UniProtKB/TrEMBL annotation:
One of its GO terms (cellular component) is membrane. Residues 8-64 form the 4Fe-4S Mo/W bis-MGD-type domain. One of its GO terms (molecular function) is oxidoreductase activity. InterPro entries: Asp_de-COase-like_dom_sf (IPR009010), MoPterin_dinucl-bd_dom (IPR006657), Mopterin_OxRdtase (IPR006656), Mopterin_OxRdtase_4Fe-4S_dom (IPR006963), MopterinOxRdtase_cofactor_BS (IPR027467), Prok_molybdopt-oxidoreductase (IPR050123). It comes from Stieleria maiorica. Its EC number is 1.7.99.4. GO terms for biological process: cellular respiration. This is Nitrate reductase. Keywords: 4Fe-4S, Iron, Iron-sulfur, Metal-binding, Oxidoreductase. CDD domains: MopB_CT_Fdh-Nap-like, MopB_Nitrate-R-NapA-like. The keyword 4Fe-4S applies. It is an enzyme of class 1 (oxidoreductase).
């Protein structure tokens, strides 16, 4: 309680880990947060938090916080320097590279972990101020597929749902998603659903969510697209289609029906390792439900055919009329706390507010709103992340600025990526922690404040703007990323361009102006104060919404009237051939390795969560591989033995966890361990350029 903490005041802020966006009440004494409790009145989490949220303050006090700038000296040692030296070096080195090799030879890699206003500042500074063309976010690793799928199907990147839908569905389909541990507060909302919903899980693993499902389609990996097409085929064959909705609001039904005709359950089921009846039963559950919803996360997004798989789910929602009503939707669950903000405001592949770099009209509008010379806005978007990485290999990218992300741990085919980092002429890492795998390679480290030490807004999975609050002083000389960007603007000589970018809320006002009249319109929000008082506000929230005030901001879903963002108002039904697995298991590498979230208590590369004693206790610190009992006995491995896991890219030594949750000839290693991506394969979805993390062939042997 506030009393036991002897807090003087409390305030509510959005959590800074995952895209659920829980509200946490921070208890503050002498200007410093001394404790937190999940906020009971916040419409997202209703008084709940997962272990990461509970420990959010603990990790700010870690020993390895970056507290002052570090610069690598001639002997290769990182030495403390002052901010003047750091920013002078930053400017001189990057300008020197640009003058020798062109402006595009310096790029940035950003994140879904900083607030919208900092993302907007970073993108504007790097591109309009420093003249860079290329910069992408680590959201390429988690959400790019959903973005592409929605843009093509709906005409705008627009997850249509609100969290109340978890409690209003009577049939819920989770594909490649394990919300029990990945999004536990959302899962709690599912458990509060009074309809006793049918819960259908498509997952090769018997995950915690699959164990709680009423139907688990335990398919062979990467057969999800074929099964979704088979479900579609059976829906059509059984006439479980909303013909009126299809005719009024979609384009492409005949092509869809023709495409899926050969994907009968009898053909697809045995190939996918499940029965035809299981597919038929799932289809009928969806088709006969009053309100069916389909949900996906990384099992779909991180796939070489992710975009088409997501669109197969969107197709099912559309042809059954399950969209725009309570409890429905084809719903991508986002990963990071501000991945949704990155999608709108990062100025990477899209221009400020999902405008198009390629459109002269859009460039002029953004230039007018930001009061900058339109010629400073490039007429093309950035290379995607993987192309930036390839640009380093080809000597086209010589300088790199990495902000609040740890790609030396998380990028696919890690060994190759680390070698490329060392090939750079100059690498700047801007981070809260000096010890990340990426920071180890830096030439210059800029110490950044973290969640709780600065202000701004995050957008959660249901499009809700939540507020980040400053309730702690950052340690040492660490600065908010926003202040670092202001400093760089001054040293670079473009301070006047950002003269009125004085504080995050001033940037928020620019975001509001840029959003006006667009699907993501937030022009009606009355500043941070209204976000704070409302428990967050979902986009869109227009001036008209604000004036009429007859729609509560907490309960909004898109497409209630069946009008989508394509010029004719119709959604597109998109289908494609099923792609071949890039590296199928063979006699030398007979096991298919999947990676993913392994626990509720760790976050991504463990940069923050490993600093909490409690969170460490909740998760084995030694990496492990899940392996099926039969496979284990064939190689003489028992639970707890050390095994070698070898792919064509590397070999790691981990503990065997013998468990039937994985099927025969499959294995699973959590992504949180720094060794996992030594094995993974550089392969990407061709539409979204998202890495395919969950399908590399390995051999496992006893050590
Ligand atoms: Fe934070 Fe996500 Fe946990 Fe909520 S579920 S407390 S947003 S990490």
């Amino acid at each position: 309680t506030p009393e036991s903490l002897q807090a003087e005041t409390t305030t509510v802020a959005a959590c800074g880990y995952c895209a659920t966006g829980c509200g946490l009440r921070l208890h503050v004494r002498d200007g410093q947060a001394v404790g937190l409790t999940p906020e009971t009145e916040y419409p997202v989490n209703l008084g709940m938090a997962c272990p990461k949220g509970w420990e959010a303050l603990e990790v700010l006090a870690a020993d390895d916080r970056a507290t002052y700038p570090l610069l690598r000296d001639a002997d290769g040692e990182m030495k403390r320097v002052d901010w003047d030296t750091a920013l002078t070096t930053f400017t001189e080195r990057f300008k020197s590279i640009q003058s020798q090799h062109g402006n595009d030879s310096v790029a940035f890699l950003s994140t879904g972990q900083i607030p919208c206003e900092e993302m907007a500042f970073l993108g504007a500074l790097a591109k309009f101020g420093m003249g860079m063309l290329h910069g992408d976010g680590n959201t390429r690793q988690c959400m790019a597929t959903a973005v592409t799928a929605y843009k093509e199907s709906f005409g705008f990147d627009s997850p249509p749902y609100t969290y109340d839908d978890f409690q209003q569905s009577d049939c819920m389909v989770f594909v490649g998603a394990n919300p029990c541990i990945g999004h536990p507060i959302m899962w709690e909302r599912v458990l509060r659903n009074p309809n006793s919903p049918e819960i259908i899980v498509l997952d090769p693993r018997r995950t915690e969510t699959a164990m709680a499902a009423t139907q688990h389609l335990q398919l062979r990996p990467k057969h999800d697209l074929a099964i979704l097409y088979a479900i579609t085929q059976h829906l059509i064959a059984s006439d479980l289609i909303d013909h009126e909705y299809v005719a009024a609001h979609t384009t492409g039904f005949e092509t869809l029906a023709e495409h899926v005709a050969s994907f009968t359950p009898d053909v697809v089921g045995p190939a996918a390792g499940i029965t035809a009846d299981a597919i038929r039963r799932a289809a009928e559950s969806i088709g006969q439900a009053d309100a069916a919803s389909l949900w996906w996360t990384m099992g779909v997004n991180q796939s070489y055919q992710g975009t088409r798989t997501a669109q197969a789910m969107i197709n099912i929602a559309l042809i059954t009329g399950n969209i725009g009503r309570p409890g429905t939707g084809a719903n991508s669950i986002t990963g990071q706390c501000n991945a949704m903000g990155s999608r709108l405001w990062s100025n990477t592949t899209n221009l400020f507010g999902h405008h198009k770099f390629e459109s002269a009209e859009d460039r002029e509008r953004v230039a007018r709103i930001l009061d900058i010379d339109v010629d400073r806005i490039p007429d093309q978007g950035s290379w995607s992340y993987d192309r930036i990485v390839e640009g380093i290999r080809r000597d086209e990218i010589k300088g790199l600025w990495v902000i609040a992300t740890n790609p030396a741990h998380s990028w696919i085919h890690q060994g190759d990526f680390k070698e490329l980092l060392d090939k750079l002429d100059f690498l700047v890492v801007q981070d809260m922690y000096a010890s990340t795998e990426t920071a180890q390679h830096a030439d210059l480290l800029l110490p950044a404040a973290g969640w709780g030490e600065k202000e701004g807004t995050f957008i959660n999975s249901e499009r809700r703007y939540g507020l980040l609050k400053k309730v702690r002083k950052a340690p040492g000389e660490a600065l908010a990323d926003f202040q670092i960007f202001r400093g760089i603007a001054a040293y670079w000589g473009v301070e006047s361009m950002f003269a009125d970018w004085t504080h995050p809320e001033a940037v928020f006002e620019k975001m509001q102006a840029a959003s006006e009249g667009r699907p993501c319109d937030i022009s009606g929000i009355q500043g941070y104060r209204q976000i704070d008082q409302s428990g967050g506000i979902q986009w869109p929230w227009t001036r008209q919404d604000a004036a009429s005030n007859d729609v509560p901001p907490q309960q909004r879903r898109l497409f209630a009237d069946g009008t989508f963002y394509h010029s004719d108002g119709n959604a597109r039904l998109i289908v494609d051939a099923v792609a071949a697995m890039p590296e199928p298991p063979d006699s030398e590498y007979p096991i298919l390795l999947m990676s993913g979230r392994g626990t509720v208590s760790q976050w991504h590369t463990q940069t923050r969560t490993s600093k909490s004693k409690v969170l460490r206790k909740l998760y084995p610190q030694r990496p492990y591989v899940e392996i099926h009992p039969t496979d284990a006995s064939l190689i003489g491995v028992r639970n707890g033995d050390t095994v070698s896991v070898r792919s064509r890219r590397g070999e790691i030594f981990v503990t065997a966890m013998v468990t039937p949750t994985v099927q025969r000839n499959q294995a699973f290693i959590p992504m949180h361990y720094d060794v996992t991506n030594q094995l993974t394969l550089s392969h990407f979805d061709p539409h979204s350029r998202q890495p395919s993390y969950k399908d590399c062939a390995v051999a496992i042997t006893k050590v």
